[in-house]
Design a protein that fits this description.
The protein is an alpha+beta fold and 937 residues long. 17% of the residues lie in helices and 33% in strands. Among the domains are: 121 residues, 7 Propeller (Methylamine Dehydrogenase, Chain H), CATH 2.130.10.10; 138 residues, Methylamine Dehydrogenase, Chain H; 123 residues.
Length: 937
């Protein structure tokens, strides 16, 4: 290794903030402060790397100088093809420079003549503050700029100065930006102590990482992070480990943060990966190694070089400059590293192949990308071809220019919901930073996923002090939905809508201890109009009862869904007030104390073991009329039961009461008279529910028997068993639709629906990877729980399955399976909607199918879907029915679904001919149907 510091590379003794080497390696650019403006200088590389060239006066040192920026230049970056140079500065501007054959645009050092001529071809205006960092995307499709205005702007490098998207989410100055080498992500680092990873498919924030940066302060001018050329590692600038500065290693595989580069004495300002994946024969094993090389610069004026194949740095250089290292640049041949400093000087480090290794060929690198990500590094010609395609259909003129927007299930709720993530305050056992002379990669105890902490953790620090980790209480974005393993943070009340829709007794957690009753949370599953509001005024007083002083032991948390407390909406009308068992077990448990449920103005109250007789204890069941507006109560009826009640439900006309002795009583809600004789099953009931129209009542027993009766007809509608699908779990939610289909949700998150036609349980949610992938991908569109309008989405929202395991991240984002998996999931959703009669959701999933096909579908698949909806082959227009002989599904014409799908194709110019072809056929069918209708009249 050789080190050289050319004194002739300077900005008139002003600071140099950025440096970058041209892809051809013949020139490099610097950016910084000029005499009275920002300065960009293009230098000849030959005099830097060769002593002979430096001594030869005929070889120019400076090629061009540009003083167009009005303030200091903070970053300069060459495009991947070397045709353009981008510069960003304190004047809020990004300038794009291009070499011209001659003319103005620059001048030589000290007023001399320019050797090369570089002209500003575009000035990008969009930031409201200083531009601190720039990064070109792979294949120069976009360029990203970040600023002190807390944003990152993605510019269209094919059509300057067009803005593709503005990434907002940081709350502090954004000081660094870098691209994933395969173009799927762009990462940014900010003074707000966070690093964010953004998806390039829709520019949404995919991941926010904060734990390694919690102790960091805003002590650096820039935070230049870098992505490894194999895409497996994202290395941040300033992070902290055990009170010392580090460069954090973030693994793409699960975004784990358990390793970092330590040893620098002050904040790390910049990291830069070598441009190539390197290889060499391992010294001891003599086997071929593939690895990446990284340079790290810091405010302590030291520079370290690391290989991912080694645990310790390859090189450490101290006091390289008199000020902080501000930028680093590798040459594309792989053996030259340039560094610049705030003291106005640069340094050149030259390595050999024996020291660093040999770069992987482009062919081998593409094979690696194909294996790891399902795509290679070559430019996506289909994207460019689509941009350059001639628009043949006028429908594409305006729509094709806009970014594709996925359909939403509830149009009026267009605003995206941000995921709520709890901050874990884990005890940090990170290793102390070693001296720079013994730098090494250290592991840090980092929480890779925010899993709930089920019990308090107490540790002692080195100085003997106690340190307690509080319990982590996660929240979800399902408007108060259940999360297994979560503990309610504060007492409160949630009101459901109807007894048939509330969480059953075994799924509810006591929130308030009281002598006579406990208030419990019920899940909201349907919104009712405001006219149906019938709440008991006494609940307001009870809601203020303080929480118990002593924390109770909670067992079996991994299987116990708990509902988050929320404020009652005025439009809901079910009141559920019951003392429930502490732990849901799937077993029938006697209701303790007073309990009541209400529907409309009628309330049914249960009190077990309240009447003592010589024959034994009796339970009382009372019907009460609550009259508004004074909320006066009038007793309607009263009856007694000889066995303790374990569960009950209330509908619009009836109430069902289930006892411990396996008996079931169905009562008229207005008179209390029995509708059926007392029925008995093979085991006690654990769940009961009414359909929305109250014509059907469902009961689920301990041994898995599901029985549904048609009350007006006094006949059984369905009798089946779900014990085979319980798999050691138990049912936590039971619902029956107006069509008589029972939905159940298990404690393990899986959910099912029974179909009489198929005589089988349909799988609604499970840990199946395709289902998890599909549900997580569409989670942003999850609606408020509403079983009447959105039954499928509501039941699926109860599932608690998380994202992919850490060792499958690369596979999850592989286009080789992601597209067919998404389409397979959507098509299954469509079939479920058909079977459970959910027309609103059916239309949504057909629209989502069109969205996915437009973005990633093949022509063969698109034609197959459209032909099925059209009802005929593309060459035969003799019928308007599909293979099933029905032109409509759930009362909606298949042509309506077809039009929704075709509308999504208008966002992609490449499908314009298919769009035109099928639109013409659809118009022909409509005109023919219109003529047929006219003849019949």
């Amino acid at each position: 290794m050789k080190i050289f510091q050319p004194s002739w590379v300077h900005h008139d003794e002003k600071s140099i903030f950025s440096i970058d080497i041209h892809p051809c390696g013949e020139r490099f650019a610097t950016g910084g402060q000029g005499c009275d403006s920002g300065r960009v200088v293009i230098w000849n590389m030959a005099p830097v790397v060769s002593e002979e060239a430096e001594a030869n006066k005929s070889i120019p040192r400076i090629l061009c100088q540009m003083d167009n920026h009005l303030a200091c230049v903070n970053c300069v970056r060459w495009s991947g093809n070397g045709l353009m140079l981008a510069s960003g500065g304190d004047d809020k501007l990004v300038m794009i420079w291009k070499k011209t054959a001659g003319g103005g645009g620059g001048f030589g050092a000290f007023g001399g003549k320019s050797v090369e001529h570089w002209r500003c071809i575009s000035t990008l205006r969009g930031h409201a503050g200083d531009v601190l960092d720039l990064a070109w995307s792979p294949q120069d499709r976009w360029i990203a700029s970040c600023s002190v205005d807390n944003t990152i702007i993605i510019w269209d490098a094919q059509h300057f100065p067009k803005i593709v998207h503005v990434l907002k989410g940081h709350t502090g100055l954004v000081k660094g930006v870098t691209w994933d080498p395969v173009g799927k992500f762009v990462a940014s680092q900010s003074d707000d102590r966070s690093l964010k990873v953004w998806k390039t498919t829709d520019w949404s924030c995919f991941k926010t990482i904060t734990e390694p940066f919690e102790e960091c302060g805003g002590t650096t001018h820039i935070l230049r992070l870098s992505w490894s050329p194999d895409g497996q590692y994202l290395v941040s600038a300033h992070a902290m480990n055990g009170g010392g500065p580090t460069a954090q290693i973030i693994e793409r595989d699960g975004w784990k943060c358990d390793k970092d580069f330590v040893g620098h004495r002050k904040a790390v300002t910049c990291v830069r990966f070598h441009n190539s994946i390197l290889k060499r024969m391992a010294p001891k094993t003599n086997k071929l190694q593939q690895y990446c090389c990284l340079a790290v610069g810091a405010r302590d004026r030291s520079l370290s070089i690391w290989l991912t194949a080694l645990q310790r740095p390859l090189v450490v250089i101290h006091d390289l400059f008199q000020d902080s290292i501000l930028d680093l640049a590798w040459s594309h041949d792989g053996y030259t590293l340039l560094a610049c400093s705030g003291d106005g000087h640069i340094a050149c480090l030259q390595f050999t192949a024996q020291e660093l290794g040999t770069p992987l060929s482009e062919e081998d690198k593409n094979i690696l990308y194909q294996r790891m990500y399902g795509k290679n590094a070559n430019f996506d010609l289909t994207v460019q071809a689509e941009k350059e395609m001639i628009v043949e259909n006028s429908d594409f003129l305006n729509v094709s220019k806009s970014n594709p927007v996925p359909p939403t299930l509830i149009p009026q709720q267009g605003a995206k919901k941000e995921e709520l993530s709890g901050n874990t305050n884990l005890v940090d056992n990170r290793a102390a930073v070693q001296s720079p002379h013994a730098m090494a990669i250290q592991s840090s105890s980092s929480l890779s996923t925010h899993a709930p902490i089920l019990k308090q953790i107490e540790t002692k620090t080195a100085d003997g002090k106690r340190r307690i980790t509080p319990m982590f209480i996660p929240l979800n974005d399902d408007n108060g939905g259940a999360i297994p393993g979560a503990v309610s943070s504060a007492p409160g009340i949630v009101f459901g809508s109807k007894s048939g829709e509330s969480l059953p007794p075994n799924d509810l957690k006591p929130l308030i201890n009281d002598e006579s009753s406990q208030l419990t949370a019920a899940s909201t599953m349907e919104s009712i109009d405001t006219n149906a509001c019938k709440l008991d005024t006494r609940l307001k007083k009870l809601a203020t009862v303080p929480a118990p002083q002593k924390a109770e032991t909670i067992s079996n948390q991994s299987e116990q869904p708990v509902v988050r407390a929320a404020i009652a909406a005025p439009s809901q009308r079910l009141i559920d007030r019951t003392r429930q068992p502490m732990v849901a077990t799937g077993k029938a448990t006697v209701i303790q104390g007073n309990s009541f449920k209400a529907f409309g103005e009628v309330r049914v109250q249960i009190q077990n073991n309240c009447v003592k007789t010589s024959y034994g204890s009796l339970g009382r069941v009372v019907g009460v009329m609550v009259t508004p507006p004074q909320r006066t109560e009038r007793k309607l009826w009263e009856t007694v039961v000889g066995s303790p009640v374990v569960c009950f439900a209330v509908g619009a006309k009836y109430a069902v009461v289930c006892s411990q002795d396996y008996t079931i009583r169905l009562l008229d809600i207005k008179t209390g008279t029995p509708v059926f004789p007392v029925l008995t099953l093979t085991s006690p009931a654990v769940q009961s529910a009414f359909s929305f129209n109250s014509k059907l009542v469902a009961v689920l027993t301990e041994n898995g028997t599901v029985r549904i009766w048609n009350v007006p007809e006094k006949a059984v509608y369905l009798s089946t068993n779900c014990s085979d699908i319980l798999s050691g779990s138990f049912v936590t939610v039971l619902h029956v639709s107006d069509q008589g289909m029972p939905f159940i949700v298990l404690a393990n998150g899986s959910s099912y629906c029974y179909c009489r036609k198929l005589d089988s349980w349909m799988l609604i949610n499970s840990p199946d990877p395709i289902m998890r992938h599909g549900l997580i991908g569409n989670k942003a569109n999850a609606p408020v729980r509403n079983m009447k309008v959105y039954p499928l989405s509501t039941i699926q929202s109860y599932g608690s399955f998380t994202g992919p395991k850490t060792n499958s991240f690369a596979e999850l984002h592989s286009s080789s399976w992601q597209t067919p998996a998404s389409i397979s999931f959507i098509e299954n959703q469509i079939k479920i909607c058909e079977m459970i009669s959910s027309p609103v959701e059916l239309k949504y999933w057909y629209s989502m199918l069109g969205f996915q096909l437009a973005l990633n579908g093949s022509e063969e698949k698109i034609r197959q879907v459209l032909d099925d909806l059209l009802g005929a082959s593309p060459h035969s227009l003799d019928t308007s029915m599909g293979e099933d002989g029905d032109p409509a599904v759930l009362g909606i014409s298949k042509h309506v679904f077809m039009e929704d799908i075709l509308n999504h194709f208008k966002t992609q110019t490449k499908w314009q001919r298919i769009y035109t072809e099928y639109l013409d056929q659809l118009k022909f069918l409509k005109e023919r149907d219109g003529r047929d209708s006219a003849r019949m009249e």
